[in-house]
Write a structure and sequence with these properties.
Layout lengths: L13 E5 L3 H12 L3 E5 L5 H8 L3 E4 L13 E4 L4 H14 L3 E3 L12 E5 L2 E5 L6 H14 L3 H18 L4 H12 L3 H7 L2 H12 L17
Parallel strand pairs: 1-2, 1-4, 2-3, 4-5
Antiparallel strand pairs: 6-7
Length: 224
């Protein structure tokens, strides 16, 4: 295994993007989506990033990268379009022990960014260890077709059931049996139909007791 896969909590963490083009824009948007405090360093930035800066969603330092710009930051992304500038960012990040990703250059990166199928809270990351991002993208598109939005609700339902079982101190074997049975059930299909009552009845049946009201909200789906 070339890379150790993990999901990193960057909420409210200062993260720097070096560069102001479309690629940098995408990286900044992803960081924002994960709740980071984003600082963009570049003489010029895209129109979309200007809007984000004007509304205070990102901070923009209007100049080229300088040594010391990433000190004290949680992570850095080098997307300047200049290999020399990107290398300088990478070398400083290494000295400061700050995780750094250089776009399209795994050799100048201490971490790489996978393609992600997002059905929050379900997230599926796909990587070719930096060898062929195009293949990761192809697989992501294929998985997005197979794993619909119903899996977001499915993950929330399973999480609610698991939390309830943990609070009730259900023994591990029984808890695992209930969760595994629900994981293998047809709940995703029922979610697509908006069959809330059938889902709750199924959960109660599998749990073997009078279970709690899941309070399922299936927005945009017709309820039975």
């Amino acid at each position: 295994m070339r890379y150790y896969p993990l999901f990193l909590d960057i909420r409210n963490k200062p993260c720097v993007v070096i560069g102001g083009g479309k690629v940098a824009e995408r990286k900044a948007a992803s960081l924002l989506k994960a709740g980071a405090r984003v600082i963009v360093i570049s003489p010029d930035i895209t129109l979309q990033m200007k809007k984000l800066s004007q509304t205070g969603k990102i901070s923009h330092i209007r100049r080229t990268y300088r040594k010391g710009d990433i000190r004290g930051k949680f992570l850095a992304i080098a997307a300047s379009g200049s290999r020399e500038a990107n290398r300088a960012v990478f070398e400083e990040a290494n000295r400061l022990k700050i995780p750094v990703n250089t776009v399209d250059d795994p050799l100048l990166s201490s971490f790489i960014v996978p393609s992600v199928v997002e059905r929050f809270p379900l997230e599926i990351a796909i990587s070719t260890s930096g060898l062929c991002p195009a293949l990761s993208k192809k697989l992501r598109i294929e998985l997005e077709k197979k794993i619909g939005k119903e899996y977001a609700s499915f993950a929330k339902i399973l999480g609610a059931v698991r939390t309830k079982l943990l609070k009730e101190r259900v023994n591990r074997d029984k808890k695992d049996r209930i969760i595994n049975t629900l994981v293998s059930s047809d709940i995703p299909a029922l979610i697509k139909k908006g069959a809330v009552k059938k889902i709750e009845a199924l959960v109660r049946k599998v749990s073997g007791s009078t279970f709690f009201d899941l309070g399922i909200s299936l927005k945009g789906r017709k309820k039975e």
